[in-house]
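Chain A, query sequence.
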Amino acid sequence: MLETRSLADCTDAVRANPGSFVLLELTARNAAALLAWLAELDRLDPKARAAVAADRSMRSWEWVAREAGAVWFVTSPREVRPVAEMARRHLQAVPKPQRELVEELWDSLPWARY
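Chain A, predicted structure.
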């Protein structure tokens, strides 16, 4: 899991992690940029998916966000579980990138986890 603070940083993270699942926060202030970014996600990474979280006041934006490419739209903390399950299933289905033997060995060492 990686938190980014801008759409540019999110773009970099998606490029570095093919098949990402992204959760975007939609606000009145970032709506235009976020929807444009979401519409371009398929070109950036065809295997990546994105869900959108917004304040209840932004509920009317749901279908615009879905049309732009959001696989889920949530406006309540009680609706987060389906997003987490969707992300889990998506990430399990994405093939893991090939790694060098040295990287795999390093990650298997007990101190590599700290």
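The CA atoms of residues 18 and 97 lie 9 Å apart. The chain has one domain: 7-113.
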